[in-house]
Structure formats: C-alpha cells, structure tokens
Give the backbone structure.
Amino acid sequence: MTRTGNGESGDTMSTEDETTSGEGVAVAAPAAITVRPLEQGDFFAWYELFLGYAEFYDTPLQDDRAMRAWAWLHGDGATVRGYVAVDESGKVLGLAHILEFTRVLENDRGLYLEDLFVAKEHRGKGVATALINHLKQEARERGFGVVRWITAEDNAVARKLYDSLAEKTPWVTYDLNVG
C-alpha cells in the first residue's frame, strides 16, 4: 500500500483530466487542483477519505485508530504530516501522509509517502499526480534525494500511474511483527 508543503497556503497546478470518449480515445480537460497542508478544519473530509482508504485495503478502522492517526498528524513534534488536494471550491479530493527518513549510504534524506488516497469519484482526474508532484517539488526544494512509496502488487490502476511517474525498484519489503 502506499502509505506527503511547507506550511504555506498550497500550490495550485493545472492538471490534465484523463477521461475516455465513447470511442475509447483519451481526452484531456484542464482542472485546477491545489495541494496544501492538512488543517484542523479538514477533519471530517479527511476522515471520510481515510475510511475509504482503510476499506480499500480491507483494514477495519475503529474510531480510536482514526483519532490516533489524526493526533499523529497534528501533535507537537509530529513526524507524520498530511496534505490534501482540493478543487477550486475547497472540496477535499484526496490525501497524502508523509514522513521524512534518512538514507545513510546515500548521505541524504527522503520523503516517504505512507498513505495516498483519492475519492473514487475524483480518480483519473490528476489528483494523485498533483499530490505526488507536490511532494517531488517539496523534496527537491529541501535538498532531499528521493520520494519513496510502496503499493500492493495487485493495485494495477495505481501502479500504471506510478510507473509513469517513478522508477519501480528491485527491493522486496518485509514486515517483522513484534506483537
């Protein structure tokens, strides 16, 4: 699963909506999407997206887990930060959660995209691309070397997008459960 800005009001970018005509031909239509840091007033929109994300990965989301995640995103010294993509009216369309990590051998730092989710009705419209591009720009501005994320092997739609934006690595991920 994919599991991302500088505290300013956000970046607005014109993206291309990829839709399909009746003949199966890709048609582009511009849309303005703003990516900005997650704010306290975003809670209910964020919760709906986070719940959708949990459901997508068949992970039950109890209220206490959601509230703990929200606290992690807003607590003093929070190591996880959240971003949202919004449309012209301010409607929240998608979310991204990131954290920083150190790459000792490369002698640099990176951003790890912990969670990325776009509301079903807004997929294929450039929202995920806007979020990822925002993270890329933030990483570049901060002198970081990489933005990294993982996804489920069977997440074909997302992987098609990711393959167009980033390099698939040969690394295999392991989890060692300690409980």
Observations:
- Residues 127-141 form the longest helix (15 residues).
- Residues 1-30 have pLDDT under 50 and may be disordered.
- DSSP finds four helices and six strands in the chain.
- The two ends are 21 Å apart (CA to CA).
